[in-house]
Amino acid sequence: MEAKAHLRYVRISPRKIQIVCDLIRGKSVAQATAILMNTPKAASEPLLKLLKSAAANAENNHGMDPEKLYVSETFATPGPIIKRMMPRAQGRGYRINKRTSHVTIAVAER
């Protein structure tokens, strides 16, 4: 059985979040927490919060042992893109895409 936690509309590109997701996939929750606390990426802070939420869901909702938990699945998918304009030369406007992400972390017992 898996316990999941979702983070929606986070204002970081999914490409940047996926780098940090690859670091913790398959690791134990304690090891993944240590990795996220020492990774100097912007995505590591919201992912750490999400990992703690998934572990709490496993313990409280499914009665799993917190010592045996590992990150069974983690991925980031694109959310809606916030579109902005940037003034450029000769009256033109260039589009700036501010990307958002939906992140899912699932933990299971080993």
Automatic annotation (TrEMBL):
Q: How is the quaternary structure described?
A: Part of the 50S ribosomal subunit.
What is the purpose of this protein? The globular domain of the protein is located near the polypeptide exit tunnel on the outside of the subunit, while an extended beta-hairpin is found that lines the wall of the exit tunnel in the center of the 70S ribosome.
- PROSITE patterns given in the database record: RIBOSOMAL_L22
Name-wise, this protein is Large ribosomal subunit protein uL22
A single cellular component GO annotation: cytosolic large ribosomal subunit
Q: Which UniProt keywords apply?
A: Ribonucleoprotein, Ribosomal protein, RNA-binding, rRNA-binding
Q: Which family does it belong to?
A: Belongs to the universal ribosomal protein uL22 family.
NCBIfam families assigned to the protein according to its UniProt record, in alphabetical order: rplV_bact (TIGR01044)
Q: Does the keyword Iron-sulfur apply?
A: no
The molecular function GO annotations come to: rRNA binding; structural constituent of ribosome
